[in-house]
Specification:
heterodimer; A: mainly alpha; two-stranded antiparallel ribbon; 2 strands; 77% helix; B: alpha/beta; four-stranded antiparallel β-sheet; 31% helix
Chain lengths: 266, 192
């Protein structure tokens, strides 16, 4: 495989695009230039650090290091998923982290261990990148599912309580909101799958082709990862939406909107 | 034996030790200034809000011995503001039928295809009450049942409630209407 390595100078040339946009933004007074530059800088720092950490872990060949990094990544993703919601309820962070840890790690372990089957099974060259992609997509799905759930229970309290007043169980009363939340969480991955290969060439396939892999093999890996991501997002979002319902209803099945607080936006 | 019995109900800071006995076929109108906990009391009786203390029973059966859906189906709350939900009148009717396990219907002057968002406040309130009467509950808890209605429609609603009482139902209504208790042949309870 012949990969053309990118130097710091090459990356600086790419950054010119962002600087150009920031200058345009400044002249038009749109107020987004600073955010764009800071986000780009943050991404560059994070990815550089990730590259260094992954390099170190690849050298260690130690399963404990792979498991440790996986747990750390999943925990941060769980916290971030909750951080993105504009409404909160006690126990939401524990739910977010718990769901992310179980769904993403289980699906990744199944996908890498049972489908790809590297030697050893925990080979970080496979496990960490796959987990990263699963986590990134699960984060979006879970946060959208939680946001839509909490917004629904808060704004449509009168409807949910009307259903309760007609003798609905919690599951029956919450169903319209759960359905909508699940759809919101799955929509991005459904759109990605619909566009894959027609409108966009997904990231993993692009990376493998750039890395010298044949398009045929790259497409099969992309299909594999899309299936894995869709499974993880569906499982994670469903668990988050069902868990969120438990947090906003009490043991007598009363909708406790008094538990929901709104995050003060800057 | 009373149908609905409420002993020492406490919901701080609004309700301190509320007692009530309601017999079948009777009506109680709760009257009090706004913001003194009338709606909260109805919601607590319907098991939609928690209470700090007190005991509730229906026909001698303690609320704790009934599941929440069983209690709410028998002691049915009708909110002052009709539920905001998407869909048509047909969707609302189907929903009530499904949840109550009994065929519900619309009002004679409300076509099934009407969009719920297009209903006037009065139409929505009458529809909500009509659906709440599906499979006749044992007790109705009404929050300002005539608040959004003109005199003619309010008379129709009171007539419907009188028929419900005559069939053996019982009701508690939170209201500002000074004449409602008399017109329903019930008694008035003033909250402090």
């Amino acid at each position: 495989m012949n990969v053309i390595e990118l130097s710091v100078l090459d990356l600086s040339l790419a950054a010119f695009l962002l600087l150009g946009h920031a200058a345009l933004d400044l002249s038009l007074r749109l107020g987004l230039g600073r955010t764009l530059l800071l986000s780009a800088l943050r991404a560059a720092v994070q990815l550089t650090l990730l590259g260094l950490i992954l390099g170190w872990i690849f050298e260690q060949r130690d399963p404990a290091a792979v498991v440790g990094l996986s747990l750390l990544m999943a925990t941060i993703a769980g916290i971030e998923a909750v951080q993105r919601t504009t409404r909160r309820v006690p126990g939401l962070r524990v739910l977010g982290v718990g769901v992310m840890l179980t769904s993403s790690l289980a699906i990744t372990a199944y996908g890498v261990g049972a489908v790809v089957g590297p030697e050893p099974w925990w080979d970080p060259r496979y496990a960490i990148p796959v987990l990263g992609m699963v986590l990134g997509n699960s984060l979006t799905g879970i946060s959208l599912g939680l946001e839509t759930s909490l917004e629904g229970y808060d704004r449509e309290r009168s409807w949910v309580e009307w259903r309760l007043a007609l003798g609905a169980t919690v599951r029956e009363a919450a169903r319209p909101i759960q359905r909508r939340a699940l759809r919101a969480g799955l929509l991005p991955i459904l759109n990605s799958m619909a566009a894959a290969g027609l409108i966009s060439i997904p990231g993993m396939m692009t990376g493998q082709i750039l890395g010298g892999e044949s398009p045929d093999a790259a497409s099969r890996y992309q299909i594999f990862i899309l299936f894995l991501i869709a499974g993880a997002v569906a499982l994670g979002t469903l668990a988050a939406v069902l868990g969120c319902t438990r947090l906003v209803f009490d043991q007598r099945g009363r909708l406790r909107v008094d538990r929901i607080t709104r995050k003060v936006l800057d | 034996m009373s149908l609905l019995r409420c002993e020492g109900l406490v919901r701080r800071p609004w309700i301190e030790g509320f007692d009530l006995e309601l017999e079948a076929g009777t009506a109680v109108c709760l009257r009090a200034p706004s913001g003194t906990g009338k709606s909260l009391l109805l919601r607590a009786l319907a098991d939609l809000d928690p209470v700090d203390a007190g005991r509730l029973s229906l026909a001698g059966r303690d609320r704790k011995d009934m599941t929440a859906p069983q209690w709410r189906r028998a002691v049915r709350f009708v909110p002052q503001t009709p539920p905001r939900r998407p869909g048509t009148v047909a969707d609302a009717v189907r929903e009530a039928s499904d949840l109550l396990g009994s065929p519900a219907s619309t009002l004679s002057d409300l076509p099934l295809e009407r969009d719920l968002a297009q209903l006037s406040g009065g139409e929505a309130q009458r529809l909500t009450l009509h659906l709440a009467l599906t499979s006749r509950p044992e007790v109705l808890l009404l929050d300002e049942p005539t608040a959004s209605l003109d005199d003619e429609r309010a008379d129709e609603v009171l007539e419907t409630l009188s028929k419900y009482l005559a069939s053996g139902g019982a009701l508690i209504a939170a209201t500002h209407d000074a004449g409602m208790a008399e017109r329903l042949g019930g008694r008035e309870v003033r909250l402090a």
